[in-house]
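Quick review question:
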């Protein structure tokens, strides 16, 4: 990993001026290549209210938009922001009087806004969503339903295959089918007309999209998130706030259509600000899922705003966001750097842990796969994150941080294993009475005993943080002794003394005594590499 190239900390603000809402994200770019989110804000502007019929933004909408953007700029300046990155989407790009709005933003809010085309909006949404997930080698479809447009993308972790921007959105569809002041239930007949309209618009794009293969579906935007939240309350056994099933979506729509606007505002889970446009957005999602044969869709909280951030960071050498690495690796590096770990030491411990794991497997001391190796190396990189809180008992702090950091691309089981490996990198070895350890089954406990032992040994082997051990190999002789062969750069007395302190644990885990052989010579220090 390259060193980041910014000279000092910088605060940057990103503003997404959408058809329904305006969103702000303020981050601090740290010199070590990590980012810190300082604030996230969202305000409903309804720029698209009546826009698509008149093809222009109303004076009221322009006034709301300028007021909110001025507020966000002032907030950014209070955080010390020197650079604002702002884009506007569907309502602004289709309005004949967009120039008037943009000039007012520049004059009154001192905000220079770029209007992005539909496909560029889709690309940025894709970048934002994939920054928060890990799909490995799979290909996925991404759906984002805004107020004025819907973006559909097919792509992998690092590249997109298809970008579609459809002139469909929750406000656009609502304005077309509902009169001002119409607040009653939605009849089956009216909903059927809405469905037919949407199906006509998506017919050709759906035909194109069907030609591509994908194995997962992701939905972003406030509309989809809110539909998933409502469905999780109506159908708690099958849908959750992070997973929406097609059958549950249909049930949710039936329920919403049966209610008046005032009753919809009181539905559990609904965002009351969306109650008047939620059905207009739901019909788009239902039609796309039906037309594409999507039975369930995973929900992402990320979107265009995060895409702007990823685009910005990708241009800064040394930031992990600039490299084509997995979301798992990126999130681990981001966490380590945010906690200001000593990265040279962390990578040395990663390299030593890898050598011990690999050579022990070759010697038949264990039979764990590369998946366990990956968790060990990520835990090795993060083992000192707890120093950010306090050196005293930092192994406990490290476990807490890993367990609660929302690492991208890991399930709870994997996070738990990494936290436990880091927790036992020093002081007492795993014990049955330890709370989190005691909750695990015997198979996982045995796994943590072995993997944490490799990390303990690797930590001892870089005891002085000077990279004196260049190579470390485990084997077993014919008498059952565990042999550790070391290549050292100069005197390694402290490192050898430290690893000898694990003799009892090595005998307990591997069933043999420890014998250490050291060959002292020159050469470059070891620097490990995190798996992708």
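Suggested answer, residue by residue:
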């Amino acid at each position: 990993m390259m060193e980041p190239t910014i000279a000092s900390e910088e605060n940057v603000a990103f503003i997404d001026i959408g058809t329904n809402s305006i969103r702000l994200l303020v981050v601090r770019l740290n010199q070590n290549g990590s980012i810190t989110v300082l604030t996230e804000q969202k305000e409903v502007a309804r720029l698209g209210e009546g826009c698509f019929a008149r093809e222009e933004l109303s004076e009221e909408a322009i006034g709301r938009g300028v007021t909110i953007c001025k507020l966000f700029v002032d907030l950014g300046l209070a955080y010390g922001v020197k650079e604002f990155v702002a884009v506007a989407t569907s309502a602004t790009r289709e309005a004949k009087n967009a120039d008037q709005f943009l000039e007012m933003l520049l004059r009154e809010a001192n905000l220079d806004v770029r209007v992005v085309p539909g496909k560029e909006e889709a690309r940025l949404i894709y970048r934002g969503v994939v920054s928060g997930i890990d799909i490995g080698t799979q290909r996925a479809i991404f759906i984002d339903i805004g107020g004025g447009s819907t973006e559909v993308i097919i792509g992998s972790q690092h590249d997109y295959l298809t970008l579609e921007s459809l002139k469909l959105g929750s406000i656009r569809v609502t304005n077309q089918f509902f009169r001002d002041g119409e607040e009653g239930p939605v009849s089956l007949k009216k909903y059927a007309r809405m469905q037919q309209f949407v199906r006509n618009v998506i017919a050709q794009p759906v035909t194109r999209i069907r030609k591509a293969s994908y194995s997962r579906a992701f939905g972003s935007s406030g509309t989809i998130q809110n539909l998933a939240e409502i469905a999780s309350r109506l159908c708690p056994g099958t849908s959750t706030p992070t997973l929406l099933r097609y059958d549950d979506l249909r049930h949710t729509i039936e329920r919403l259509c049966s209610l008046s606007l005032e009753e919809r505002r009181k539905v559990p889970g609904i965002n009351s600000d969306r109650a008047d446009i939620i059905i207009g957005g739901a019909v788009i999602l239902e039609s796309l899922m039906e037309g594409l044969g999507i039975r369930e869709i995973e929900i992402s909280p990320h979107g265009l705003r995060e895409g702007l951030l990823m685009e910005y960071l990708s241009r800064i050498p040394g930031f992990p966001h600039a490299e084509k690495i997995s979301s798992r690796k990126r999130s681990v590096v981001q966490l380590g750097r945010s906690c200001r770990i000593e990265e040279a030491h962390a990578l040395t411990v990663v390299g030593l842990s890898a050598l011990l794991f690999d050579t022990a497997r070759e010697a038949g001391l264990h039979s764990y796969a590369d998946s366990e190796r990956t968790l060990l190396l990520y835990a090795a990189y993060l083992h000192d994150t707890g120093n950010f809180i306090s050196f005293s008992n930092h192994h406990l702090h490290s476990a807490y941080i890993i367990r609660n950091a929302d690492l991208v691309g890991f399930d709870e089981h994997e996070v738990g294993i990494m936290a436990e490996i880091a927790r036992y990198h020093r002081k007492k070895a795993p014990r049955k009475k330890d709370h989190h350890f005691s909750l695990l089954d015997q198979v996982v406990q045995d796994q943590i005993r072995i993997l944490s032992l490799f990390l303990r040994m690797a930590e001892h082997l870089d005891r002085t943080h000077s990279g004196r051990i260049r190579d470390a190999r485990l084997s077993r002789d014919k008498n059952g002794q565990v042999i550790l062969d070391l290549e050292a750069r100069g005197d390694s007395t402290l490192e050898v003394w430290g690893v000898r302190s694990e003799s009892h644990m090595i005998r307990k885990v591997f069933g043999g005594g420890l014998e250490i052989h050291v060959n002292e010579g020159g050469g470059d220090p070891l620097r490990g590499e995190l798996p992708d």
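Why it works: The mean pLDDT is 93. The first strand starts at residue 10 and ends at 17.
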